[in-house]
Amino acid sequence: MLKKYFDKILVEAGCDEAGRGCLAGPVFASAVILPKKFKHSLLNDSKKLNDKQRRELRPIIESSAIAWAVAQVSAEEIDQVNILNASFLAMHRALDQLGVIPESLLIDGNRFKKYKEIPHHCIIEGDGKYMSIAAASILAKTYRDDYMLELHHSFPHYDWMNNKAYATKSHRSAILEHGITEHHRKSFTLVPDQLELDLGLSE
User: What is the pTM assigned to this prediction?
Assistant: First the structure.
């Protein structure tokens, strides 16, 4: 069962990202402040839920939260600062958008770059331990999925509708056949043997 809070007094924002391991598209992050008494039997780590369950929970989280925000860092920015720093930046951008200033941050994972003067706690697999982080994981995941679905219509060869730009066999085969797009992360190993890859941008 997920814990409702880390500290029963402080205003806490749970933070998580989605799309860190993808070959294309932005990395998304969300920050969510939930009421201390919030609970929902379905709420869990987004990876443990199917798409229908995540879609069911998203409006519940948004309407119940004291504050929430979603932000992104583009593929071009990822190539400039690396994916780890881009993940931190996406979380910072989400925190910047919150209408309520949190007093403590719960971060999914084992590393984070300090945000202003707000204390933070890095929690490994935190999206399966705390409700606010789980809520953030669901928002980040669903908003990123929506983004990749829109891109899919312009770049159907890559099957982003289904693989969401993760390194599936079909995605990598499409890269070999059609080249890369402006949405691909050029700092990533896009196919196992880079020498076989035509790095010309796909039209």
Answer: 0.93
